[in-house]
């Protein structure tokens, strides 16, 4: 009978462990960028792996940078891009330059005079964490530093 078949199937499946449901973690595709004030002269922006774009929603971070730069209207600003060590040297050099240029362009768009700023890429040459092993350590190396540079004072 059908009841006997159902009972037989149920008894056969009794020893088979139930499959664990697969829970997929949500993937955040929004580039994570944060601004950290390292010291009196330097602010650092962090990038996700292989990203250069400056998303318009980071208004608060760029307002902070704008205010940081304008605390001292006499200093020049150097915008320096960095990468982690993953990837080819030439590619990382271009990526770091593109990151610094993206920050530079956004600051110019906000009203910082381009005559006060320069930008450059350092690639993977100046890691904060040499020989990074964890993603957290790699993240510390993927950055743009916005550095105030004092100009020599002219003698009167």
Describe what this molecule looks like in 3D:
A hairpin with a 4-residue loop joins strand 1 (35-37) and strand 2 (42-46). With 156 residues, this protein is an alpha+beta fold. The protein contains 4 helices and 5 strands. It has helices spanning 2-13, 59-70, 89-110, 135-141; strands spanning 35-37, 42-46, 76-82, 117-121, 143-149. A 5-stranded mixed β-sheet has the order 1-2-5-3-4. The N and C termini lie far apart (110 Å). Helix content is 34%, strand content 17%.
Characteristics of this structure?
single chain; 156 residues; 4 helices; alpha+beta; 5 strands
* Overall radius of gyration: 25 Å
Strand content: 15-25%
The biggest beta sheet, please?
A: 5 strands, mixed
Ends distance: 110 Å
Average pLDDT figure: 77
Task: Outline the fold blueprint.
Blueprint: H1 2-13, E1 35-37, E2 42-46, H2 59-70, E3 76-82, H3 89-110, E4 117-121, H4 135-141, E5 143-149
Parallel strand pairs: 3-4
Antiparallel strand pairs: 1-2, 2-5, 3-5
């Amino acid at each position: 009978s059908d009841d006997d078949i159902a009972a037989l199937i149920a008894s056969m499946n009794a020893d088979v462990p139930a499959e664990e449901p697969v829970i997929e973690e949500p993937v955040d595709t929004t580039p994570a960028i944060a601004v950290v004030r390292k010291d009196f002269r330097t602010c650092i922006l962090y990038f996700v792996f292989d990203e250069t774009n400056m998303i318009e929603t980071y208004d608060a971070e760029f307002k902070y940078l704008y205010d940081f730069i304008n605390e001292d209207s006499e200093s020049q600003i150097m915008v320096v891009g960095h990468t982690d060590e993953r990837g080819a040297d030439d590619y990382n050099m271009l990526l770091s330059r593109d990151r610094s240029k993206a920050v530079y362009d956004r600051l110019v768009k906000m009203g910082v005079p381009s005559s006060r700023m320069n930008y450059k890429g350092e690639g993977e040459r100046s890691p904060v964490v040499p020989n990074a092993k964890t993603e957290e350590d790699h993240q510390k190396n993927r950055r743009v530093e916005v550095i105030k540079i004092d100009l020599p004072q002219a003698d009167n």
